[in-house]
Structure formats: structure tokens, C-alpha cells
Amino acid sequence: VSNEVRITIPANWQNKKVVYEIFSANGRIAKKIETASSSQTETMNVSTLSPGFYIVRVSFEGQTAQQKIIKQ
Q1: Any alpha helices (H) in the chain, and if so which ranges?
Q2: pLDDT band per the 50, 70, 90 thresholds, residue 31
Q3: Backbone phi, then psi, for 2, in 5-degree steps?
Q4: Alpha-carbon distance 59 to 32, whole Å?
């Protein structure tokens, strides 16, 4: 990714409170967004993050999905 990362969530997570987090390689939270009523796709601006390896984690009612990304 370079400026934005688009995150698509399962249909049963939509219109509910969802937490989106981006963690740096050392485990620190680089960015966090909480939505009270999430849409199918959330766009996160990552233009201010330093280049490198990150993990995107999405959480909803104890369920978690995560994906590795590389910021250019």
C-alpha cells in the first residue's frame, strides 16, 4: 500500500461496532479507528506511516481478522 488501505469486512459485521487497528512490526498501535456502524469497506489513510511491515487487525464482538501489509 502507499496512501490508503481498504478493508472489507464480513456481511454479519456490517452496521455494528467494529475496531480497525494497524500495528507496526514492533507491536505498537500505529493507527486505530472505531466505528459505531461499519460499512462493508472501510478506507484507512496510511500516508503518514513510515515505510515498512504492518499488521491490520479488525475486531468485532470477540472475533478478529488480520492481514499483513507492506507500506511503501
Answers
A1: none
A2: very high
A3: -125, -55
A4: 11
